[in-house]
Specification:
Helix content is 11%, strand content 32%. The protein contains one helix and seven strands. It is elongated.
């Protein structure tokens, strides 16, 4: 048996396997469904959100906070054109994405910071300073 097109046969094998488990083959993820992966870490003084955004320019990002919900929106543009040759496989997603996270009440919303560098978005969410317990007061009865 001669192997005519190894890449096509691998794609076909992937499609058959995905369909066997209830997927829709190679079309199971579309660019509209692309969501960057995030890590959220809590420390004593802040929360940190790290998002993997390779190929996303910081000018194509938007971060908003409204009603206790932090939203990250952005877009990764397609890097090749139709004249660049025959595409055998496309696994790098492009298009827009939108991620939203409910932030805790103890976050100081006025002190949020964000940096984007080398394909990483880092959002710092400082916690509010803990209110000191007030001393007991004796209230005179008059």
């Amino acid at each position: 048996m001669r192997w005519q097109s190894p890449l096509r046969e691998i794609d076909d094998l992937f499609d058959r396997t995905a369909r066997a488990f209830g997927g829709a083959g190679r079309d199971w993820l579309t660019p509209q469904e692309w969501n960057p992966r995030v890590d959220i870490v809590e420390k004593d003084d802040c929360f940190t959100i790290n998002a993997d955004l390779p190929g996303v320019d910081k000018d194509d990002l938007s971060i908003t906070l409204e009603d206790g919900v932090l939203s990250i929106k952005g877009e990764r543009h397609q890097e090749w054109d139709d004249d660049s040759g025959q595409v055998h496989r496309m696994e790098c997603f492009h298009g827009s994405f939108h991620r939203s996270f409910t932030i805790p009440d103890n976050v100081d919303a006025s002190a949020l910071t964000a940096t984007a560098k080398d394909g990483q978005l880092v959002i710092q969410l400082p916690k509010k300073a803990k209110e000191e317990a007030s001393e007991a007061l004796t209230i005179p009865i008059g």
